Amino acid sequence: FVLCLHLLGYTMFLDSNTQRVRFREDLAAANGDASKITVGILGNRFFRSQPTYVTARWIASDGKPRTSYLLTSGYWGLARHFNYVTDLLMCFAFGMTSNTIFGAALPWFYFVFMAILLIHRAIRDERRLLAKYGQDYLKYKEAVPYSMIPGIY
Predict the structure, then answer these.
(1) Where in the cell does this protein reside (predicted)?
(2) Domain residue limits, the chain
(3) Burial of 47 (0-12, 13-18, 19+ CB in 10 A)
(4) pLDDT, tens digit, 9 for 90 and up, residues 75-100
């Protein structure tokens, strides 16, 4: 069970990051025409659909305007920092190797440490992205209301 839980977390970690990268690459290749691309799971092989996203405009440090596309479908429609949840799933599986639920402190230290680190990082990311994208980030937060854990936080 522990190995399956870890592999699930690892697969979702890789797949969610691949989904985001592939979306950006495909959108750039399609000259911004989202009707020509799809997002799905497991390397875009299954459950493919038209992506939804928020267009976020910002000013780079060189003073030039830039545009980013914030994915609001697939894994990234579930939570804005979905990849952090997959990290925590792998850490939780590591803690379960102690063969007790929260009985031995050392194996669970990794999970607790990473939970604190990633929650703090998500909070910092939120502040930084709000400062960078402004109103466009608020639209993104409206489209994807959960920060890390779908339905909870």
Answers:
(1) Membrane
(2) 2-143
(3) exposed
(4) 899 999 999 999 999 999 888 887 66
